[in-house]
Write a structure and sequence with these properties.
The structure is a homodimer of 201-residue chains.
Chain A (H helix, E strand, L loop, with lengths): L1 H16 L6 H8 L5 H5 L3 H26 L4 H12 L7 H11 L5 H30 L6 H21 L6 H15 L14
Chain A binds a DNA duplex (30 and 30 nucleotides) through helix 3.
DNA sequence: TGCCATTGATTGAACAATCATTCAATGGTA
DNA sequence: TACCATTGAATGATTGTTCAATCAATGGCA
């Protein structure tokens, strides 16, 4: 499909040139096609950008949903599966991280982009919140409201993504995952275990 | 000074239109000046953008350094002062957050921007790391390496900033601060106390 | 003081480059 | 042929930059 070919080229271009430096020429050159083709399959550049963001959002959604459903039955297993999905090799690549932050750095259009993916994000947040509530109730953890834990998790996803993007020279998905596992083991110590730390880091 | 006037206008314009939508016209219009003035005081648009980023970085630096030096003498006090500086009313405004993420969403120029503020960021990280080491040693906390705590803190700053930017309708600096205090109270329970949670959230 | 020359800041029209979009022409296929 | 996908030159709009002209402020001097 030409559409997917162009979306892939758009991801490449944004990762390399940013949204501002992404033009119809850069996209079609990467795709190996001619200039006019974008306005044929997508009706405008703005539409191409939105479809690209939607593609990434859906890809991420499918990833964590599948991990969630295939995980063990316990709430901690399911929560960790969602965490891991954020750092899955197909989702958490330097290129795709660059595109995510390119979109959310775009003030003025942020509302447009946000409305495109709000439902998807909300679904994940609600599930994570429910899992935290289950764990808190079952484990008798009363000092932190589940909502607080879910919020911190969301912030950690984004914050670690940004660190991976900013310092790609120490790009390590496993370290990212350990950060979150560390947090969970401190909040729900009977349900998550502290990862083992190798020397140095 | 005209330079500061133009930098302020640039912040306003980026917050409203994004970097892509920020032109010489939008900046000079907001500043109430004429078109050619930017190239007189700054030699190019790119230079204006870099000076704007530098201004924000220095402002942030001054903020946390002053808070750090004026804080209590204990390591926990000093660490919390640095945390608080991130959510100070002068630093953590919707406009300025928008500008930060606009810059770091700009792939292609990210290296340029990063090199501009790397030293400043490194200084803060080093101090936080040293404080964590002191606390860990003094308190006998052996299960988490201080570097791990410092890294998670950095990620939390960015992640919470992004949440504040994305969901400005629930913009509350105090909630942001509580998130980090919660984390610290779980990692170093004898040195930080869990914030009190009001009902609901 | 009154006058003029000099400097530096400011203006905005003009220019050249870039970009998204359009569309007539072409190619391929059933 | 009829239909759809594709091409790429042309168009019009926008943008960063340049620069000659204007303005304001200062200083020197009689």
């Amino acid at each position: 499909m030409r559409r997917q070919q162009l979306i892939d080229a758009t991801i490449d271009s944004i990762a390399e040139n940013g949204i501002g430096g992404t033009t119809m020429s850069t996209v079609t050159e990467i795709a190996g096609l001619s200039l006019g083709i974008v306005n044929f399959h997508f009706k405008s550049k703005q539409n191409l950008l939105e479809e690209t963001l939607l593609f990434l959002a859906k890809e991420h959604h499918d990833q964590w949903l599948e991990a969630f459903e295939n995980a063990g039955l316990s709430a901690p297993d399911k929560l960790l599966a969602i965490v891991d999905a954020h750092f899955h090799p197909q989702i958490c690549t330097p290129k795709k991280l660059a595109v995510w932050f390119a979109f959310f750095g775009e003030a003025g259009r942020r509302e447009v982009y946000r409305s495109l993916i709000n439902d998807i994000d909300q679904e994940r947040y609600d599930i994570a919140l429910r899992l935290c509530s289950e764990i808190a109730e079952g484990g008798g953890y009363k000092d932190i409201p589940p909502r607080q834990v879910a919020n911190i998790l969301e912030a950690l996803y984004d914050g670690i993504w940004l660190e991976l993007l900013t310092y790609p020279e120490n790009f390590q998905r496993s370290v990212a995952r350990d950060h979150i596992a560390t947090f969970l083991s401190k909040v729900y110590p009977d349900h998550f275990q502290m990862p083992a730390f190798n020397n140095g880091d």
